[in-house]
Amino acid sequence: MARNILWEGLLVACVGLGFALAANEFSPRGLSLTRNYFPVGRILPATTPLPNTNSVGSTNLTVAEGVIAELQANGLQLATSNQAAAWFTDPRRQTAKIVFVDARNEEDYKNGHIPGAWLFNPYEEEKYLNAVAPVCQAADKVLVYCHGGECDDSLSAATELRDVGVPGTNIFVYAGGMSEWLTTGRPVETGPQNSSQWLNQNP
Amino acid sequence: MNTRPNNSPHSWKATAGLLARWILGGAFVYLGATKALHPEDFLKLIRQYELTQSVLVLDSIAALLPWFEIACGLLLVAGVAVRGAALVTLALLVPFTVAVWHRALALKSVLAISLCAVKFDCGCGNGEEFACRKLVENLIWIALATWLLAGGGRTGCLRHTLRKSNEDEPTA
Fold it and tell me: Are A179 and A108 within 8 A, CB to CB?
């Protein structure tokens, strides 16, 4: 009987694997099995407590140093909360010389993003890169953000932009991310890019 | 349908077996589907366990495991190859429970709080949960799967066993 159970288990495993391979292949959200989705190290180690994002600039020094070191190792820059705010009101943003890039998924983006930001989910780069890359290549400053805290999708997105020819010296990772932006009460746009639908106030 | 005489739907064991199958199978379908809808989130979460450095292994777990769970869950709900499906679910549950336990201990140590106060998203499909609650939940799933592996849950099966042997005595 034990042999029958093992045989049945093996058969179930094979059927399940076949089903999973087919479902992943046909799913619009399916992942590539061979792509390195994390070409760079983590911004924060997995067991690091979240830095306090309730007040601007309160991030633990060791964590901040780790972030800067990781960015520098990848030829990228760090953007502080004040820089993000200043670049948001800079007139060069209107002429696309300063570009904001949101590295979260579409659902999160539509729920609220920095007004005018381009959506670039690094897990679906083929969907967004053709539109985002030329804009970023022509910009003087590209600010990339995700949720903030433990999120390192901004780092992945920044690396991918660097790899398609955007100079690393022009790419700034806003580590505070959307959580810090929201906490500071800055304008937030909902829906698609330039929808003119505001979560809190009109900028 | 399995219509053996001692599989009476009126027996509590038969009803409990049916419920065990449906609950375990339903949980696997639900938890697998929540992960399959956002595989990139699942990928990020399982990366935190630092189980492997291999891109192929990490991507395969994130891409295939949710659908694999759905397949096992559907087999359990339908009552097809129940013991085989229970064996596979056990093979998924036991190492994953150990991994959750290790990660909870690591977080406990870093955060300097009690194990039951540790709350994190284990990548199980339910978002952030308290570690103790998740571990207890997993132990219940393991108990149910073990019971099904031992021959429980024959009532209402489309095909409980794929290949019958002489020793295959029906039990509720």
Answer: no
Number of domains in chain B: 1
Tens of pLDDT, residues B40-80: 889 988 888 888 889 999 999 999 999 999 999 999 999 99
Is residue B27 one of the residues assigned to a domain? Answer: yes
Q: Is residue B167 part of a domain?
A: no
Chain A residues touching chain B at CB-CB below 8 Å: 1, 4-13, 15-17, 19-21, 23-24, 27, 29-38, 46-49, 105, 121, 123-124, 153
Strands (E), chain A: 77-79, 98-102, 118-119, 141-145, 171-174, 189-190, 197-198
B91: containing domain: 12-157
Interface predicted TM-score (ipTM) of this complex, two decimals = 0.85
In whole angstroms, what is the distance from residue B125 CA to residue B42 CA? 8
Interface A-B: count of C-beta contacts within 8 A: 117
Q: Decide if B89 is inside a domain.
A: yes
Pairwise pLDDT comparison (A1 vs B7), residue with the higher score = A1
Residue B113 lies in a domain: yes
Interface test with B, best of A14, A24, A106 (most B CBs within 10 A): A24
Question: Cβ–Cβ of B63/A33 closer than 8 Å?
Answer: yes
